[in-house]
Design brief:
By secondary structure, the chain is mainly alpha-helical. The chain contains ten helices and three strands.
Length: about 270
């Protein structure tokens, strides 16, 4: 696939903004305590980092996140057993760049996590989430070492959350999800940089796989674009951990077999 076609397909998918707000889930066995706890931990860690580490003085040419660098996932350090090593795959999962990064991740985690937790149980869901974080890191480290030399740090919960989405996809791929569908359009009038006009969204009941696979397709296209750049001897800074997302999703689809309640698994057959 040519880079031009990849870019075209990615832009086409980016035009459509999908926001899942409700699914037709049955009665849950209990409150999703682990999902709520993970959200709370991520929020508390981000608040602490924002008002302490991010506020520390630093040189103008240094990034504001330099203080959390030791806790980020840095492939080069992991491969060479420096810093926290493989443990950084866990610590980096609870770090976020800004409020928007945090809000987006926590919304997706709370939406998909509560039903997956219902299918696995509390302790099993915590283990599943952690394993998905490590598989996301494994894929990210391997690809970043090959494509960038492994010096670009990564952080965020999206890899582990992609694993939760993968588990949801396995369990409830045909689950109808009430989704707000809108398009991102650049307005003719000048606006604040970084913002776009979103027309009034249309609520539609869509299968869960539509939302999940649309996200996967975007990641796959960006990942392929990075590989094409590598073939040309260039490094493409994506700014998004697309390989972590893919690794997490594959991990979730695989590891759900280990943790799903037997009665739920029987209901999938």
């Amino acid at each position: 696939m040519s880079p031009t076609l990849i870019i075209f397909l990615y832009i086409f998918l980016q035009i459509f903004f999908l926001l899942p707000i409700k699914d037709r889930r049955g009665r849950r066995r209990g409150f999703p305590w682990v999902t709520a706890l993970l959200v709370a931990i991520n929020v508390l860690v981000h608040l602490w980092v924002t008002f302490t580490i991010y506020q520390q003085p630093h040189e103008p040419d240094q990034p504001y996140w330099l203080g959390i660098y030791p806790f980020m996932e840095v492939p080069y350090l992991i491969i060479n057993h420096e810093g926290l090593g493989a443990l950084s795959a866990l610590t980096s999962t609870y770090l976020h760049a800004d409020a928007g990064h945090l809000l987006g991740n926590m919304f997706v985690l709370s939406f998909f996590g509560r039903k997956v937790e219902d299918a696995t149980g509390h302790v099993s869901f915590a283990l599943l989430y952690t394993l998905c974080g490590f598989t996301a890191s494994l894929m990210s480290v391997a690809m970043n070492i090959m494509l960038t030399g492994g010096h670009i740090p990564g952080f965020g919960a999206s890899g582990a959350i992609a694993g939760v989405m993968g588990a949801y996809l396995f369990l409830y791929s045909n689950e109808k999800v009430l989704t707000l569908v809108s398009t991102w359009l650049a307005p003719a009038l000048p606006v604040i940089p970084g913002f776009c006009f979103i027309p009034l969204p249309i609520p539609l009941w869509l299968p869960a796989w539509v939302f999940i696979l649309s996200q996967v397709a975007k990641d796959a296209l960006l990942g392929q674009l990075a590989i094409e750049a590598y073939k040309l001897g260039q490094v493409l800074p994506l700014g998004v951990g697309v390989f972590a997302h893919i690794g997490g999703l594959l991990g979730g689809m695989l590891f759900i077999y280990l943790f799903i309640r037997p009665e739920v698994l029987a209901g999938q057959r």
